[in-house]
Amino acid sequence: MTTVDANILKTIPSRVDASKTLGLIKTGNVGPQHLQAIKNITAFNDEKISDWLDISVKTYRLYKKPHSIIKARIKEHAIMALSLIKHGIEVFGSSENFLEWLQKENFFFDKKAPIDFMDTNSGIKFIDDRLTALAYGDNA
């Protein structure tokens, strides 16, 4: 993780929180650097991340360029994803361990991988709730 990515994560809520996410979006400080941070921290390809954001790969790549105008719903989804990633790193101790868990089939996700739920805000919230449960001793 780069210093820029670490600094971005410092500004992100540690849990998925609608009011804090909205506050960040309304400050106008959410931009291409947040989309790039998702890619840098997760090392997932553009196709996977654009699927999460429900946009084309071309649009995702355009949004990562400096001075891009990003739609509010994409900013919201990006902040929520970063909050989830930050929470996952806190629970699992490293991005590698969290990303491994995120990609494994899980009983609580109807025997699907949690990552399959990243394409909606409610899915991200559901994953975040499972992370909270894990942090308090619930099974993986």
From TrEMBL:
InterPro entries registered for this protein in UniProt: Xre/MbcA/ParS-like_toxin-bd
Residue ranges of domain Antitoxin Xre/MbcA/ParS-like toxin-binding in the record? 88-137
- What is the protein name for this chain? DUF2384 domain-containing protein
Q: What organism is listed for this UniProt entry?
A: Mucilaginibacter psychrotolerans
